[in-house]
Fold this sequence. Notes:
Elements: H1 4-10, E1 13-17, E2 20-25, E3 28-29, E4 33-35, E5 42-44, E6 48-50, E7 55-58, E8 63-66, E9 82-85, E10 88-92, E11 99-103, E12 114-117, E13 123-132, E14 136-140, E15 144-153, E16 158-162, E17 166-170, E18 173-175, E19 179-183, E20 187-191, E21 194-196, E22 200-204, E23 212-216, E24 219-221, E25 225-229, E26 235-239, E27 242-244, E28 251-252, E29 260-264, E30 267-269, E31 294-296, E32 299-302, H2 359-370, H3 389-401
Amino acid sequence: MRSPRIAAAGAILSAAAGASAQTIIAGGNLPSATWTVGGSPFVITGDVTIPAGNVLTLQPGVTVLVAGTDGLGAGLDPTRVEIIVQGALLCLGSTAAPVTFRAQSGTGSALWYGIRIASGSTGASITDASIQNTVTALMMAAGSVGLHHVSVSDFRDHGLVLAGGSLAADRCTFIGGASGVNVTGGGGTVSNGYFSGQAAGVLANAAAFSNVVTCSHCTFDRCGSGVSVGAGNGAVNIRNSIIAHSQNYGVFRPIDGTVQVSVLSTDVYSDTGPGNFAPGLSPGSGCIFLDPLLASPTDPHLLPGSPCINAAAPAYCTSSDLFGTPRPQGPACDMGAAEVPFVCYPNCDNSTAAPILNVQDFSCFLQKFASQDAYANCDASTAAPTLNVQDFSCFLQKFAAGCN
């Protein structure tokens, strides 16, 4: 009888259920391979390891389902399945067809352990993906890890543990759990991130932490603290961000904490906690302390009139926001993860070449008026007929005013 590891390394069992196929991964060492949507979902029933020198590639649309018990009874948690990367993991999702990791059955957290980038690994690149139902979604001990447009939710402990290596995370969301990013030894950058509902959005409290982590254009909403630091000789930098509605201090460090914290051009608004900064910490230049007017407890977009609009420091602006909107949309970037799109009404044809407003916009407006397009209701009238001569006058006035 073959052992589970031999079965996993040498054979992948495929089964058809009705019109859809699934691929069973029994656990053990994985060969270099490319998983495609044709074999999806891939059901992992025991700890799997990508050995050093091997590369596992997941194509757009692949779903990985993880069993609720570890068939091998091994790893950090012998009761929960782990994906262990000693080689390299490439997840090549797309906006239309993301890669998904989730529990085979059930909802909630801690149904499987997570993805572990082990010591000696060359790292991972995960693009357009969702990771759900874990104890800790990602654990980094080494290598270079790039995360782009990754959603991490329903985790019990940490969205990501940065224990070693170099992290570059952009356009990622972390919902719930104890901390979004727990820094214990590595370093890197987090940009355009959205953190909501953790005890700490970013946590850095480990003696081994001696590197630098920089968060740019992040929104920390309704966390215990947006940023919480303690032991270690490293530094956490916060730039062009929003830390709002914290239950504790927006930025926290105990009196005996040693991690350095620098907060510049950030809105820190702790209306429900004891204060914006814990005693011994102070804001840097460009900080404000006003309600950022977030769209909702689950939406980091800024409402009209937000003090964070056009308030970010140009030196720290990123090229796009959490949703892919280019920055800046106005005269300056917006603080936080979401950039408010700039809408110039008279630019009817949405041209980008100078001059943006030209005779083509008049032709475009006439066509929309003739086709009864709602755009042509320039004065937003509600009485019939909603499209009338006043809309022409309105359009002329807006054209004359320009795109301001």
